[in-house]
């Protein structure tokens, strides 16, 4: 019969790292074979295509022999491989070591209630967590809309004129606020006053940041300090916390007037939930309002990731850091969202940057926005009233048994003096611990208690009875708890204005509607669930399910960042192991996970270098050499660390101009602090002179900062230490598989050589390093700790062998593509052996003249082929930077190359005059469905040619939802919203 | 400034069951407000629109007063409401009461390893779990393709000619096989031989089924039994298990020849994983091959849901039960998948049905198919070799310390005689329990041990050491475990033929590729994430995330159905509470969750009725009255239960012809067994005569079977007991929010009056009821136990109040739609007050004459409007049956009505001759993108009119991926692949 006797597949897949089981006892779910796209057979095909008969021969030609490391440095002995199920079991076991105490610590962190529909359909949905930053708005309208919801929510609750689409956390947002205040006085006034009610972690980050900018930070009771004329004349701004760290809601109206009359700005750190009941800062005179939006449905996650919010008055909008989404129009006049970069300072050519923010917290901002959509104004008000009401009940109950509330006003926090009842705070903390709850530790006499949405009546009762027990009073029952009659907020501070009236916040309240809204938005966005996203310098690889799963387990997600160390042993094992593995991989001595992004890592690394120089009495070293090809965050970070940026020339092929480096290093040798360099370079070049370059710096007293964004090219082959660096950051959201989340979260750990280790950042609440440590760079001691789990799982599941194989295949994939495309496009760089690194730079300059085509035209046309365009116009304005990563199969690489080659043919038609220069498939790209649905069709090509230029598109195509968004509205050609070296070099 | 001073929303949502918090201590995450679509405001708008000023007045007119129940029967006292987080906590606590023993019990159930990418992106993805059965192939190509993968996988591994798209479980699949064998001899031969190596639960289900059909079941060693001539002459078939229950792999080649020469069919129950190493049944003469495919990545789930597979030879394909997907073509000639019903017996007019299968196990079949796609032939072989290898290691190790393996051949199972070493099996079971493992309990002397993919080397060692300890031998270490050199399968029984050579099983092996394949298929299918699916009689309501989440927790998903009761206390609480709540809701005394679908519930209920009659010495009662309007499964189930179907007339308005009922009941009074009736009727009618009808039956000695598919109209208002029934089934996958899974799973519990309770089905391995119980109707004691969690959560979260409100809003939504549509379409039925029940039947007959339009044209055109069509041509060929459910908001109802009304206008254009009868938007519907992308456009309407007939479609539209699939290939007008009463009435 026809169906019988099936033949075997001609070939079955057997990946580089997947051999037939050699042992019956080796696990069947080894991760490398699932992570790495090409199999053995494909790899040999690709090697053959580029002229090699072995991987080793190819690597010899690709990675400079001088910097190669021993094959034993990163292998399965140094980093053993766990299978997917082994990793799962290990994560479960470690999760079990985190003790699930109920937290009343507060201090800006709360146990969020994540609406299940958002948890599963946003946070756990690869369609939401794998996309890139929405630089290609035609294929990103979904999350752009959601980010606009986020901005709107922040504006509405704060009553401010404009808000951005998130910053890294509350503390760094406060630092951005301070710097804005400083620059608003043209750096003439150096005093920034911080009220003593501000969160300690915010203060620590301000201290670090003030140092770099030379700001004079004064921490005092703001009201009294403002009476001093000396302070007033040098005042650039004031930061207040509303409600403050101890829970008080203070009326800052007079203070705001006083600051304004002194010529400073009012910066207010606040809480979005409280603002649903409190008079919003925008109504009492704040100029800048910021905070953490995590309370809106984002898990505590031992510190993050969370979206910091940031809103300003209209007058300040052009100075605001971070990404801003705006409403615009496409070529047909249809309304469309896009990144509005042009209004903000980083995109205005200026001598100095004030912010380096690039990766932000898009995914978490989207979760918070969805929370507001789901609850709406009425729901948010109910939640706020409950939180406030529980606080009232608690406060009365403990007051009744003798405790003394210190704050007269409050929203959700009570600071109690316990000494008269309990003797010391310790007695209360011990009783609390015995009951499985954490309170805020303030001092010997006082404890803090903060309520959140997650507290149940039973929790409340249990908490109250911790206090009654310590007071030797009789325990209460539910029946004893009296409902307050009215909120206890002073009437002058009660909110009277409305919020969130927009339709989007008032219709998706049934789960069905919410589900559909979430999926409808997701359907507009291209992500890794659709096709390869070959973004040079961004390393969009597989974000595996098995590395994502533990993240949303409560044992990891529901942990307060200031929980006592003995409750977070599981987390600490994860952090320690990841730090150790990153050190093995980079060749360095120590690491910190505190920075929340690559740029934050750069900044932290430079601060460490400065501290090192300072420890040697060389605080005057303040020059930072940066090649012109550097990513814009490099010079921005240098400026923030108080360094003077000096540019170093780059050869047209991407290599550093060593002579120029030598000259500049010598010229600045007395003040040389650091050299920042990306390796392989931003051109995708393994420069053979890297060690020489580093030697030049060291010889002139400087330290080498290696930007590790391109580490994916290196693992197991070379490492930053061997290249000559002293410190590097890694983008865990690139090389180590944390998903990009549509523009964040990120983690930017830094790894340092032994001599820099003492200076790694500490934390004011949970000190993490020794006494030479610099102050905190992020709000949480371990930054966005929860997602470190992803990279930990990634490293453990690949093991040393898989990590090395990944880098090799990443190099092979890029070189295969270079080979396929090079007959058709101008490859900007190859080494002497004809090899590129893990990415390739193609130059489209020629088409401007020959066909009137710009990079953007090629990029938009790629959308029609179902692909997200590669990085455009960076690091060279006329180029595309293509990085396939190891996770893409040969078939997918070929599909992308086929598309690029077909587009080249389309360009040829224009060059030879077969198609007009001003009305062709590239210039008119992308073509959404609405374009071909129109009755009229006046174009010199068919609808078929417009939308199905290659046959594979008939089966699988991603459709842009709008046509090209008018260039006049923005700078879509930028990689990140960060300035170039030239713009920044002073 | 412009952004300040936002005004409040004009109205904010406040659902029927969501009032502002009356108590500070009531939870904020009450479920009813999320589940029910319309809010208070919308509800009053709708009531006003249909002429009422109160809900109660509306209900008075809608539900016959005589059958109304007290408002205290179903309220928050009788069924208290849990909030979403309270339910979560309760589920966690109950999960904690299930003890996670490692199971080696086997017997057809295994601990599956679900690939994480499939777990998260299929099983936990609403895009996969919320769609309906793919009766509308143009918007279901994704899961149709996946089901074809499933069929192909089964065919390839079994080496059979054709396979269906799943049955309910292995035992019912075996029963279907037996019945096919019986009918293949035209019911002339009544002996069906079951080999003693068959699983006990299969045997139990066969016993139940044999009884109904009057089959003579002989359980013997098949080989020896076949020597008896008497048996041979009456033989219709033989069932063998391969490998058998004790693990032996027997060579059935000679047996098959012998059966064939006797004129019977060979039915083989088998294991897909074993078949990757064993000579497949298709190669040694099996005619029918079946089993459970759950081992391919579907969790054990305490018994299910799992996909039973079923494959046959080409000669039998037209007799095969269940759904079959085939490849076909659309109007443009593009290849497309669809349900190929016409080749199978249920759709051939015949006097008697032999199967009632309707809801099957699509979601689980898709998971199993995706598992095969992910692993491919090489991966599956590795898994099989590991399982077999571990079995070899275990067997040698325990043999070495004195245990006696009884089976000479084996794949994954060893039956050990332990008496010489351990005295009795009990000693071994106690030692096993102490080590946290379960073994198969056989008898005093023997234990069974079965291996699966999930067993780690450490597990294996621990298991071996249970046996060494009992034997007082020294414990082994990993170093003692010797890898076998070669498989231990007799060479004559080794597989030599290839399997799964098809490209789909040989390319999606990286996680990235797998992820993209899963999402690509999902992108072709409409589901509840897109828009309302108003399928009459199918109740497509919200499948809430919070009810789905516990399902994939290991404490519920990784439990073997034969685990000792003391290890499953959590499950038993869930089952008991759900049964009790269903009894409160139906007014009955007892319930069982064993049936795996509504149809299986019908069958079980009728068997219970028969057992009841038998207990009273009235086994002759064998007539079943069924109205002509009944769902096709009703008569099919009756036939299976050995009943003679007698049809009862129905008035054109849908009401039962009580006179005819009376006449038939009296005519058959001596033999009247049962009356089956759906309430509200399949016309969407609350017949006021229901109690009279039931009385007629009771007066004539019959029992009333109430088909509860429409229970969603009743809760808190009336109940099946009050209506006069003795037994009813409920479709938990309709009323109780188990998602439809694209065609299953389902749960069809039956609830019975006290006099029937003693007869509820038991189970041979885990007896669940008293000694009058009928034999099992499903393989697992509690059927698809894991998904009962969903309904349990649903009931608990709505509470009595929310359940009642849901029914009220379901009625209101349907009546609102009836009102909006009635000016435009002919409403087939309204009661004397002008009300319909929870669904409405519109008759499109008139358009055939006036415009040449059939129901299908309207249905396909609805696809162009982004909607899944309602139930078509059932229960009346010219009608659509529209059921909105309570979860849809007024906005969505309006959107659907707008679409219907616009289509009516389009029809008008044809009627008045503005558009041609043979070439118009309805006849040409649906219009996929490819249709409007064509260069040519010869249609008498524009592309815009074709695809964007209403403005909302510009923002949100679901695109069919193919054009209409040729009618000549099938029966798209059927509701389920089940025969009508007329076809079945004998
Ligand atoms: C070379 C390089 N350095 C630094 C960064 C900044 O990293 P992040 O976006 O995480 O701040 C990037 C980001 O694209 C980069 O490509
Ligand atoms: C009235 C009625 N009865 C019975 C059934 C059969 O239920 P199931 O598909 O779960 O077997 C259905 C299914 O649509 C139905 O509508
Ligand atoms: O994510 C979705 O597949 O909709």
Describe what you observe in this structure.
The structure is a homodimer of 986-residue chains. By secondary structure, chain A is an alpha/beta fold. Chain A is built from 34 helices and 25 strands. Chain A has a 7-stranded mixed beta sheet with strand order 2-8-7-6-5-3-4, sandwiched between helices. A 7-stranded mixed beta sheet of chain A has the order 15-21-20-19-18-16-17, sandwiched between helices. Chain A has a 5-stranded mixed beta sheet with strand order 1-13-14-12-11, covered by helices on one side. In chain A, helix 26 links the parallel strand 19 (703-707) and strand 20. In chain A, helix 5 (116-123) packs antiparallel against helix 14 (362-400) and helix 7 runs parallel beside helix 14. The longest helix of chain A is centred in the middle third of the chain and has 39 residues, at 362-400. Chain A is globular, with a radius of gyration of 28 Å. Mean pLDDT of chain A is 93; it is low at 1-18, 342-351 and 969-984. One pyridoxal-5'-phosphate is lined by residues 358-359, 537-538, 597-599, 631, 633, 678, 682, 707, 709, 731, 746, 748, 976 of chain B.
């Amino acid at each position: 019969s026809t169906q019988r006797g099936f033949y075997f597949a001609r070939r079955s897949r057997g990946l580089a790292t997947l051999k037939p089981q050699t042992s019956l006892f080796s696990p069947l779910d080894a991760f490398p074979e699932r992570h790495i796209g090409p199999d053995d057979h494909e790899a040999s095909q690709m090697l053959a295509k580029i002229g090699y008969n072995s991987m080793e021969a190819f690597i010899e030609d690709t990675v400079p022999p001088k910097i190669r490391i021993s094959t034993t440095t990163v292998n399965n002995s140094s980093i053993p491989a766990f299978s997917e199920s082994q990793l799962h079991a290990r994560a479960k076991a470690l999760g079990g070591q985190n003790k699930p105490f109920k937290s009343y610590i507060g201090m800006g962190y709360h146990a969020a209630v994540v609406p299940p529909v958002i948890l599963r359909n946003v946070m756990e949905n690869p369609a939401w967590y794998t996309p890139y930053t929405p630089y290609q708005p035609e294929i990103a309208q979904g999350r752009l809309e959601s980010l606009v919801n986020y901005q709107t929510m922040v504006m509405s609750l704060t009553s401010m004129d404009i808000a951005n689409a998130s910053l890294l956390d509350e503390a760094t947002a406060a630092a951005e606020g301070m710097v804005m205040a400083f620059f608003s006085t043209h750096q003439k006034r150096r005093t920034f006053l911080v009220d003593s009610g501000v969160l300690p972690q915010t203060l620590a980050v301000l201290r670090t940041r003030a140092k770099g900018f030379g700001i004079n930070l004064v921490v005092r009771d703001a009201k009294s300090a403002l009476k001093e004329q000396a302070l007033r004349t040098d005042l650039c701004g004031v930061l207040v916390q509303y409600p403050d760290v101890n829970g008080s809601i203070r009326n800052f109206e007079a203070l705001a007037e006083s600051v304004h009359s002194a010529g400073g700005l009012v910066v207010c750190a606040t809480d979005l939930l409280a603002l649903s009941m409190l008079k919003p800062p925008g109504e009492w005179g704040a100029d800048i309002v910021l905070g953490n939006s995590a309370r809106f449905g984002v898990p505590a996650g031992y510190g993050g990731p969370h979206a910091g919010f940031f809103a300003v008055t209209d007058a300040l909008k052009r100075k605001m850091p971070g990404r801003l989404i705006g409403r615009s129009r496409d070529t047909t006049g249809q309304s469309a969202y896009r990144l509005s970069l042009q209004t903000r300072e980083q995109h205005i050519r200026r001598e100095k940057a004030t912010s380096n923010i690039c990766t932000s917290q898009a995914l978490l901002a989207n979760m918070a926005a969805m929370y507001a959509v789901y609850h709406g104004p009425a729901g948010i008000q109910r939640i706020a009233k409950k939180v406030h009401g529980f606080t009232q009940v608690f406060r009365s109950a403990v007051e009744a048994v003798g405790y003394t509330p210190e704050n007269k006003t409050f929203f959700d926090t009570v600071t109690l003096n316990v000494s008269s009842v309990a003797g010391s705070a310790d007695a209360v903390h011990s009783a609390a611990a015995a009951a499985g709850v954490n309170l805020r530790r303030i001092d010997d006499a006082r404890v803090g208690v903060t309520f959140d949405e997650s507290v149940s009546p039973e929790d409340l009762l249990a908490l109250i009875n911790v206090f009654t027990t310590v007071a030797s009073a009789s325990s209460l029952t539910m029946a004893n708890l009296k409902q307050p009659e009215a909120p206890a907020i002073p009437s002058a501070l009660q909110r009277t204005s409305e919020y969130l009236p927009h339709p989007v916040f008032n219709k998706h309240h049934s789960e069905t509607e919410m589900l559909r809204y979430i999926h409808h938005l997701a359907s507009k966005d291209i992500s890794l669930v659709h096709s390869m996203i070959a973004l040079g310098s961004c390393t969009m690889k597989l974000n595996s399910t098995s590395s994502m799963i533990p993240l949303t387990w409560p044992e990891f997600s529901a942990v307060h960042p200031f929980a006592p160390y003995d409750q977070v042993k599981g987390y600490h094992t994860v952090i320690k192991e990841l730090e150790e593995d990153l050190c093995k991989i980079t060749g360095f001595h120590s690491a910190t996970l505190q920075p929340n992004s690559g740029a934050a890592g750069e900044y932290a690394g430079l601060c460490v270098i400065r501290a090192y120089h300072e420890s040697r009495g060389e605080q005057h070293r303040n020059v930072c050499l940066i090649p012109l090809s550097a990513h814009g965050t490099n010079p921005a970070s240098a400026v923030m660390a108080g360094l003077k940026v000096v540019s170093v020339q780059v050869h047209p092929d991407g290599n550093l101009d060593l002579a120029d480096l030598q000259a500049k290093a010598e010229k600045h040798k007395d003040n040389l602090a650091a050299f920042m360099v990306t390796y392989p370079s931003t051109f995708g070049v393994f420069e053979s002179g890297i060690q020489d370059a580093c030697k030049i710096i060291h010889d002139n007293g400087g330290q080498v900062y290696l930007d590790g964004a391109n580490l994916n090219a290196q693992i197991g082959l070379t490492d930053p230490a061997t290249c000559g660096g002293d410190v590097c950051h890694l983008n865990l959201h690139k090389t180590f598989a944390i998903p990009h989340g549509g523009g964040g979260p990120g983690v930017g750990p830094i790894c340092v050589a032994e001599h820099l280790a003492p200076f790694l950042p500490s934390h004011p609440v949970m000190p993490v390093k020794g006494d030479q440590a610099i102050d905190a760079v992020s709000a949480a001691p371990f930054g966005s700790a929860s997602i470190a789990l992803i990279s930990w799982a990634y490293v453990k599941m690949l093991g040393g062998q898989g990590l090395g194989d990944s880098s090799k295949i990443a190099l092979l994939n890029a070189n295969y593509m270079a080979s396929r495309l090079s007959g058709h496009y101008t490859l900007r760089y190859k080494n002497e052996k004809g090899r590129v690194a893990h990415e390739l730079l193609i130059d489209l300059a020629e088409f401007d003249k020959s066909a009137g085509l710009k990079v953007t035209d090629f990029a938009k046309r790629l959308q029609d082929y179902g692909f997200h365009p590669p990085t455009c116009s960076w690091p060279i304005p006329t180029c595309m930077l293509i990085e396939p990563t190891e996770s893409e199969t040969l078939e997918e690489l070929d599909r992308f190359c086929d598309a690029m080659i077909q587009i080249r043919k389309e360009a040829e038609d224009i060059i030879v005059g077969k198609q007009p220069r001003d009305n062709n498939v590239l210039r008119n790209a992308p073509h959404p469905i609405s374009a071909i649905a129109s009755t009229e069709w006046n174009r010199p090509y068919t609808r078929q040619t417009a939308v199905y230029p290659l046959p594979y598109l008939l089966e699988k195509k991603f459709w842009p939802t709008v046509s090209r968004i008018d260039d006049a509205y923005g700078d879509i050609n930028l990689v990140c919203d960060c300035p170039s070296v030239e713009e920044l070099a002073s």
